[in-house]
Amino acid sequence: PTESGFTMDVLALYDWAKARSGNSSILLWGHSLGTGIATNAARKLQEERGVQVDAVVLEAPYTNIREAAAHIPITTIYRQFPGFGYLILDSLALGNMFFRSDENVKVLACPLLILHAEDDDVVPPHLGRKLFETARSAYKDKSKVKFITFPKKLGLGHDYISFNPELPVLVK
């Protein structure tokens, strides 16, 4: 799998859904790694086709894959070793894996909703907050960018925001 391959897959899925949706809204929803794919697809649709998706929802997002890899807890022990940047972080770039959501959100104009649980132990919540701040700074219409955090006491972590019974109302 490649970043461009993932993005092409989402664009094909978007085309398929759009052809069958009538006047229904279509939004791109990405979770974790999928948040980079969702912003890539939304940006490509906007810049290359002149199409704006109805909304983008990012669940447990990061700014870009390099920063995510540098901050995910599993890499804590490895960060202290010489060569961590070269062997781990630079290898992502050598594989054309960038997932630059921070750059993508700067050019989007569609509604953007960012969801992050405070107890996410995979993608640190500060990366979601940083992405929100980047988007909010870039968007002309600041009301189109929202950030919702879920308190630790809910125990939603990295994978269970979608289990929150209030989510449909929050998204709507």
Automatic annotation (TrEMBL):
Full protein name: ABD12 lipase
One matching Pfam family: Hydrolase_4
Stored Gene3D superfamilies: alpha/beta hydrolase (3.40.50.1820)
Single GO biological process annotation from the record: monoacylglycerol catabolic process
Domain Serine aminopeptidase S33: 6-69
GO cellular component, one term: endoplasmic reticulum membrane
GO MF assignments: monoacylglycerol lipase activity; phosphatidylcholine lysophospholipase activity
